[in-house]
UniProtKB/TrEMBL annotation:
Acts as a regulatory subunit of the 26 proteasome which is involved in the ATP-dependent degradation of ubiquitinated proteins. Residues 1-23, 452-487 are annotated as: Disordered. Component of the 19S regulatory particle (RP/PA700) lid subcomplex of the 26S proteasome. The 26S proteasome is composed of a core protease (CP), known as the 20S proteasome, capped at one or both ends by the 19S regulatory particle (RP/PA700). The RP/PA700 complex is composed of at least 17 different subunits in two subcomplexes, the base and the lid, which form the portions proximal and distal to the 20S proteolytic core, respectively. Interacts with UCH1 and UCH2. This is PCI domain-containing protein.
């Protein structure tokens, strides 16, 4: 009984369990077979699924695994194999022997498909970026783009769109984004001629990002206005396009369109894209403040965004109160954050809104007040604050921000009595904006519906038609018999 209690046979089952779990290399081989089948069947959906499975394995990629997969998918000794292997770092010899032993059981393809070749480029490029080897990533991405220019296959379009994104990212991480602008324009022209709509969508966003990175908003708008538009194929690319469009509209002082684009981008973005949604909300808050609106507190209390939106919450509070000193202190306190978010120039524009808000509060509180007191309450720090206050008040009256009159002789601002807001068109405008929002959401939901392909073209066969007619005759006969029974 003592020998049974010792249980000396326990380690064996544990080894068998670990051996049955598939390795990362085995998963990559399954993805390669999926890409091969989709290439032969010309089904793009399988390519999309293969990329999705690859993103799941992204954190498990190692140099030894990638070298083993390259030996499996490509011909060892070929030009592509040699080039991609040179980008991978040399690992431990023991690990290399294990991987080559596993890959030796599979014979490599004599003539690898172009889809598999591009997929190998994509794998190596993702690995180099994750390992922060940006110079090698630049070389690998440039070689992959040169190879892509010679391929015109619809099954490569999805893989090519991912390669375009990482191509731009590798140059952005090294600070050389301006070098590839001409190449991106050439790729966009090629994608347009090949009717690669997903590639056009991706490259247009990359070009907009390239222009906005260097504050070239006029060139970005010219490209956007002249680029061909079509129905969005990727939700992620459409969200990016809306975000860039919102930034362009904001700089061009078209705040209403910018607000709509930014809020739509934040709504359509996936929940996992937290950083993207934070950026959309930052710009949307600034745009709403420039429009004279005060965002709700719930905007700043969204899950995972409280810390990132804290500077904008304090800025909103300063604008809401109309305190110019508090606004200046918040702008100086978070100046580094605003500069990194590239919203510092927009915050400078908010100074006029802060003054106008404070002036509105003063006009509501006082029926008559001197311009010297207005300058003191607004805390104007100019050489002649009374003259500045007079010009600010006159401009606010002319723009309709306050309902008051200006007495130049006595130096007073006389506020008129506030009337009933329901006697104005304000409620009508509010209801109109809500109805327009609901209608746009309904139209987006209808456009997002998916139907089986060619369902309206499928005709009923003769056998099904006879069967349907027979069922209808039997049903009519049954109803007639029931009617006879009733009489």
């Amino acid at each position: 009984m003592t020998q049974d209690v010792e249980m000396k046979e326990l380690p064996a089952p544990s080894n068998s369990v670990t051996s049955t779990t598939p390795s990362t290399l085995q998963h990559l081989k399954e993805i390669a077979s999926l890409i091969e089948s989709s290439a032969y069947a010309r089904e793009v959906r399988r390519i999309v699924r293969a990329i999705r499975l690859t993103m799941i394995l992204r954190r498990k990629l190692k140099a030894t695994v990638l070298s083993g997969f390259l030996n499996y998918a490509l011909n060892p000794g070929s030009e592509v194999h040699t080039r991609l292997s040179s980008y991978l770092p040399k690992e431990d010899e023991h690990d290399m022997e294990v991987d080559t032993a596993t890959s030796a059981t599979q014979t490599p393809a004599k003539h690898p498909l172009p889809e598999l070749e591009i997929y190998c480029y994509l794998l190596v490029l993702i690995f180099l970026i994750d390992q922060k080897k940006y110079n090698e990533a630049k070389a690998c991405s440039a070689a992959s783009i040169a190879r892509l220019k010679n391929l015109n296959r619809r099954t490569i379009d999805v893989l090519a769109s991912r390669l375009y994104s990482y191509y731009s990212l590798s140059y952005e991480l090294t600070g050389d984004l301006a070098e590839i602008r001409g190449n991106l324009l050439a790729l966009h022209r090629i994608a347009t001629l090949r009717h690669d709509e997903l590639g056009q969508e991706t490259l247009l966003n990359l070009l907009l990002r390239n222009y906005l990175h260097y504050n070239l908003y006029d060139q970005a708008e010219k490209l956007r206005s002249k680029a061909p538009r079509f129905e969005a194929h990727s939700n992620q690319q459409f969200c990016r396009y809306l975000f860039y469009l919102g930034k362009i509209r904001t700089i061009q002082l078209e705040y209403t369109d910018a607000k709509e684009s930014l809020l739509q981008a934040a709504r359509k973005a996936p929940v996992s894209a937290l950083g993207f949604r934070v950026q959309c909300n930052k710009w949307a808050v600034i745009v709403r403040l420039l429009l004279g609106e005060i965002p709700e507190r719930t905007v700043f209390m969204q899950k995972g965004m409280e810390k990132a939106l804290r500077p904008y919450f304090e800025l909103t509070n300063a604008v809401r109160i109309g305190d110019l000193e508090l606004f200046k202190s918040v702008a100086e306190k978070f100046s580094t954050t605003f500069s990194s978010d590239r919203t510092h120039n927009l915050i400078v524009r908010l100074r006029h809104n802060v003054i106008r808000t404070g002036l509105r509060n003063i006009s509501i509180s006082y029926s008559r007040i001197s311009l010297a007191d207005v300058a003191q309450k607004l805390r104007l720090d100019s050489a002649n604050p009374v003259a500045d206050a007079e010009s600010i008040v006159s401009k606010a009256i002319r723009d309709g921000a306050i309902d008051a009159t200006l007495d130049h002789a006595n130096g007073w601002m006389v506020s008129k009595e506030t009337g009933d807001i329901y006697s104005t068109n304000e409620p009508q405008f509010a209801f109109n904006s809500r109805i327009a929002f609901c209608l746009n959401m309904h139209n987006d939901a209808v456009r997002a519906l998916r139907f089986p392909p060619n369902s309206h073209k499928e005709k009923e066969s003769a056998e099904k038609r006879r069967e349907r007619q027979q069922q209808e005759q039997e049903l009519a006969k049954h109803i007639a018999e029931e009617d006879d029974d009733e009489f």
